[in-house]
């Protein structure tokens, strides 16, 4: 869509390695190394990038922590050391705040895949202040 229709966009990626790779693709979109807040205000979260494509914000995975003892040890270590290479703090902003920052409140296409927090993020959007057309949400499996 960028090449054939001249579209621009916003790419939000909290995973440091994935964001670095994204920058090498010469996209015509705004790119931000943050995460989308599940609250209507900014917040810091611990991000767990130790499991590749299933990386996630630790807050969302609390109920599963007891299932994987080694992961528990990694997370406890990260909190104690504050950050490691694969577990680190990430700033999260409400989507609307990011849209205001780039001067875009009219969106032709909106895709959202955030490992299960889609609904919480959608709830933060002041729908009367933005014009978002087709929305694609990730399918939970």
UniProtKB/TrEMBL annotation:
Lineage of the species this protein comes from: Eukaryota, Metazoa, Ecdysozoa, Arthropoda, Crustacea
Name this protein carries in UniProt: Methyltransferase FkbM domain-containing protein
UniProt superkingdom: Eukaryota
Positions of the Methyltransferase FkbM domain: 5-125
